[in-house]
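Notebook, bench 3.
Goal today: get a predicted structure for DNA protecting protein DprA from Paraburkholderia phytofirmans so we can plan the truncation constructs. The sequence was checked against the plasmid map this morning, with no discrepancies at the termini. Length recorded as 422 residues. Pasting the sequence as submitted so the record is complete.
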Amino acid sequence: MHTLPATDIELAAWLRLALAPGLKPGALRLLLGAFGLPEAIFEQAPEALAEIAGAAAASAALAPTGPDFDAQLDAVIAWREQPGNQVVTLDDPAYPPALLTMPDPPPLLYIKGRLNLLHTRAVALVGSRSATPQGVEDAERFARELSVAGVTVVSGLALGIDGAAHRGGLQGIGGTVAVIGTGADLVYPAAHHALARQIAVQGAILSEWPLGTPARAAHFPQRNRLIAGLVSGVVIVEAAMRSGSLITARLANEMGRDIFALPGSIHAPLSRGCHRIIKQGAKLVETPDEVLEELGFARQAAPRAASGSAHATFSNRAFSRNTPTGSGAAADRAQLAALQPTEASPAVSAEAPLAAATPCPPANPEAQRLLAALGHSPTTLEILATRTEMEDADLQTALLQLELAGHVTMLPGGRFMRASHG
């Protein structure tokens, strides 16, 4: 490694651990708790590390860096020097305190924009990427009123509800944070380039992924755990029965966060997921004031609406602060852990022009099976689940892989169809 200033040497040590293949954040936190800073970990014998975090973690932590590590480090240092960019390590006082309550906080965070927004009271607002016009309107209104009340709105920069949440959050003093599933130097989806630039100036963009990391299906559940970790509560606006937003809700509940959901028509596919988690004990909310009241966030300079009984809780609810590890959450965690990262179409740089790509046949057998079950007429998740007999998490991941690769088109109302060139 070339000669570096002391601060960059410390960053290099953190980066080495963050990039170590097979070293999970939970195991790394155990090692840091036992030995202190990364440099001290590198000085230990493998047996000492294995005693704390297991043989696999010890081997991963002490593995030599790859041939391109110096180039990666130079890229991180250069990115950090750009205005508005920051790299925050786990031992930094600037590290978001809410994430420290997680069992597996990332060792490195790449942040663009206002770091102070990661130290404020916050609420996540998430939902379907194929949102209805009413859902988009509700999401933006909730986000705007929460932000006006001084609450930071956190979401995932996806199409649909996420984008509406960010737009609403930008309209108030609370601002908005976008947690993304790519490197912080990329924007996905491409349609949100302008929104991402605005968030980088007025809000904050946060990623745990190394610079240059493209959009991959397995990254989005990982991103969702950070969304859940940053906030006091999660609001689901629209979600189908097999929506990824429900996974976010379960991860949030596992961390002791409150879960809220907006009700809808019993005939609407995108209301079914919300109704499902309400039945399981999530709080039904109809106004932003109900969210503020439940979380104990006083609205500033505005009267609080009467909330009535819409947000009443149930004694045996599945979503309970007193039940941090429900069986549903554990099952979802197990499903997510079994998913293998599959490379999809790369995200594009915020400055790069958009270019059309010819999709390659999906390599994943489950994605192939799902593509075979898709016709050229709109099909719901429930029908696809019946045709393929796939588990919820596997179905969601395969659909996202196919969409990223250009094989599947998502339609309003939570429906999917084979893309015209597929």
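The two ends are 47 Å apart (CA to CA). Residues 302-358 have pLDDT under 50 and may be disordered.
Flagging this for group meeting.
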